[in-house]
Write a structure and sequence with these properties.
alpha/beta; Rossmann fold; 2 domains; 7-stranded parallel sheet; globular
Length: about 350
């Protein structure tokens, strides 16, 4: 019988976990692969909901982690990227030492260099899976070698096949914990509480009485940060413990900053407004804004016009919308990543 290839899968952040999840599930069903997963942070939190077959590294030091690696003896390391001194970088450093092939995947269109750097060192894998031509070209401009980049798409997007049309009975605000995160140099920081305050004010001005639900990011610690706005407003505003992704289906309108949840909402057919005050349109990292399936705005006056228009008009599910779904969802990104893995371990 053919010898099994041992694949080590690593992630620390939720975005990284989402990007590797479908590949993990596919390889786990393949008799020619043996898979070990190392997760920590929000990756471990969400993996524990649906898949308990992993090593939780939150309470393990570097030497304990390396012991798992040495016992498993992987043929390849596949990881979701994180910003800062994350688990994937520790594992990548170990893999490089033993000349084990390494493959990273990027889940979002921003902060490319920060995903591969920590403590003034660069941690570059043999190959990097990127989402599309835009990401490929952006990374080349940032100094990444063309030969290391492979356009595969993001396997997580295969989870977005269902188009949402019904149960529209509230406005969803997709919160991000910008005010709670220590930011690295060059990383854009917004004030999500002030942004929400401005959105609430505009909704009131427009006379919209729809219920507003705040979907908290998994990394949110200060869950009370919106309380003053809620208490001072006559609008019906509440915070749900569900993740924002779980709240998309029932939303008439989805509002937020630049979360991946906004991209998901737009590609599933929801009306989406992305408010990023103070940035130039050219610096907008939310791809749904760039390709025209969500409304990106960068000042308060434009925000009012956009909310009015998106709230009152139907989502345009045109040929362009179908083409976007074909590119990002129906292009079989999971299999494309697996093909890269197979090429690296030959």
């Amino acid at each position: 019988m053919k010898r099994k290839n041992k694949i080590l899968i690593v992630a620390e952040d939720l975005g990284g976990y989402n990007a590797v999840k479908n590949v993990l599930l596919s390889l786990s069903r393949d008799i020619y692969f043996e898979v070990l997963s190392l997760f920590c942070g929000t990756a471990a939190k969400f993996a524990s909901i649906g898949d308990k077959n992993f090593v939780d590294c939150d309470q393990k030091d570097t030497q304990e982690i390396y012991k798992f690696l040495e016992e498993f003896k992987p043929n390849l390391v596949f990881f979701g990227t994180g910003i800062g001194d994350t688990l994937d970088k520790k594992v990548l450093e170990w893999a490089k030492k033993y000349k084990i092939p390494t493959l990273g995947i990027i889940d979002y269109w921003s902060e490319y260099k920060l995903r591969f750097s920590a403590q003034k060192s660069m941690f570059l894998p043999d190959k990097i899976c990127v989402i599309d031509d835009y990401m490929f070209n952006s990374m080349v401009r940032d100094g990444f070698g063309k030969g290391s980049l492979v356009i595969t798409g993001n396997p997580y997007f295969e989870d977005f096949k269902e188009i949402y049309n019904t149960n529209e009975n509230y406005i969803l605000f997709v919160s991000q914990p910008f005010s709670e995160i220590k930011f690295l140099s060059g990383h854009r920081k917004f004030d999500e509480v002030e942004i929400f305050s401005q959105i609430v004010g505009i909704i009131k001005e427009l006379g919209i009485m729809e219920k507003i639900i705040i979907g908290l990011h998994p990394r949110t610690i200060k869950k009370e940060k919106y309380n003053k706005i809620i208490n001072d407003s006559k609008l019906n505003i509440s915070i749900f413990e569900k993740t924002s992704s779980e709240l998309i289906a029932g939303a008439r309108l989805v509002l937020g900053i630049n979360s991946m949840v906004l991209f998901e909402s737009a590609i599933r057919g929801k009306k989406v407004v992305s408010y990023q005050p103070g940035i130039d349109k050219e610096d907008d990292s939310l791809m749904s804004n760039r390709i025209g399936i969500s409304c990106g705005v960068y000042d308060k006056e434009s925000l009012k016009k956009c909310i009015f228009s998106m709230y009152n008009n139907e989502m345009d599910k045109s040929i362009k919308f179908r083409e976007v779904r074909k590119e990002y969802i129906d292009s079989n990104p999971t299999q494309k990543v697996i093909d890269v893995i197979n090429n690296l371990i030959r």
